[in-house]
Amino acid sequence: MTDSDGAVQGSTLPHWYDGDDVPTITRGEGVRVYDDEGAEYFDFTSQLYCVNAGHSEESIIEAMTEQAQRIPYVSSSKHNDTRTELAERIAEVAPGDLSDVYFSISGSEANEAAARFARAEQDAPKVLTRWQSYHGGSYGSAALTGDPGTRNAVARYAETTGSGKFLPPVPGAFDADTPEELARKAADHLEFVIRNEGHESVAAIMTEPVAGSSGAFPAPPGYFERVRELCDEYDILLIADEVITGFGRCGEWFGMQTEPVDPDLITFAKGVTSSYAPLAGVLVSDSIGSSRREDGIEIGQTFAGHPVACAAGLAAMDVYEERLIDNVRAVTPPFESELRELAERHYAVREVRGRGFLHSVVFADPQTGEPFVDTWGTDEDDNPVDEVVELAAENGVLVATGRPDDQIILAPPLPADEDDIQEGVSVLDAAIGEVFG
What we know:
The chain is an alpha/beta fold. The protein is built from 12 helices and 15 strands. The chain has 2 domains: 142 residues, Aspartate Aminotransferase, domain 1 (Alpha-Beta Complex), CATH 3.90.1150; 262 residues, Type I PLP-dependent aspartate aminotransferase-like (Major domain) (Aspartate Aminotransferase, domain 2, 3-Layer(aba) Sandwich). 39% of the residues lie in helices and 16% in strands. The protein starts with 24 loop residues before the first strand and ends with a helix.
């Protein structure tokens, strides 16, 4: 970047950047953020589905400050009282017998660690994940990712191995007349993949309880029960990627607690600190934890389990427990009602789906049932869903497209009340009407 005199200036390179102008966010308060020109926005996506406690939770800031004053950093190869307390607290609210926590920094790194642990535990090389999924953008996690945009961008320069793919339990992948039939066909397909990969070569299945940026779709009834049965039958570990669904977003501590099965490992990030500081990790069962202690862990990360981040996590968990998870449960019914009415008003809205404070609005041509633009299958740039996102932002509401971008993901901060939701859906309603008529 150069100034008017031709001198070189430094500049930030935004992530997921496609050449468009991006806002400069300078301040946040509650469920709203403000840019450098003073414009106010309702943050209907919690930035990247991560600022669960809102943008100005003083208790988290105070806990971080206190920790930084006491000791700001402790090596990740040593114990720390705040780090240990957070691990114990997370284990207390986790499903099943998950008891030990391995901390990391980002969700991508947590997913890589979970895959590494599973491979070591099972002495098997492969981890199966869904097509269309997103598990991260680093080399290892991009191999796990099913979204072609991310996977191909990374594989263009260095191919990665050790993963296999199966179809997600969505109607577009299977011809099914009922949710129960969809669950059966999707699970039968998964078993077919396991058998054809060679079940002894499969260490784990990694999946989100409710899809995150890939569409906020929950599984049909009975699906996860069958997945758990398949894992038990073929001696495969079940990894729940809870980077987005964890810490209250689906109305429970973890998204898997909205399903009647327990995973063998859970990965988390984002909401654990309400993203006030970077922190992520892997929850494992007592047996896996014991194996890792016995065999040792030969690699690590300098900033994993940073004490200031762990202090933020403890304070965030207090806020979730005291009021925010209850708020998600209370506001979800009117949120879903608003979205159903939105779908009824607009021919271009094919479906709304989700759970808790994680929903998707999916668009399609009503005559064909296909996306208006298939951005995964063509080089077409003129996507009307992008126009809806831009119009909403111009009118004070931040939303984002999903993967694929025939949909808009809605994931408000957990303190959002009915008025906030009504405002956000109203602005989205007007934007859809302007774009699609």
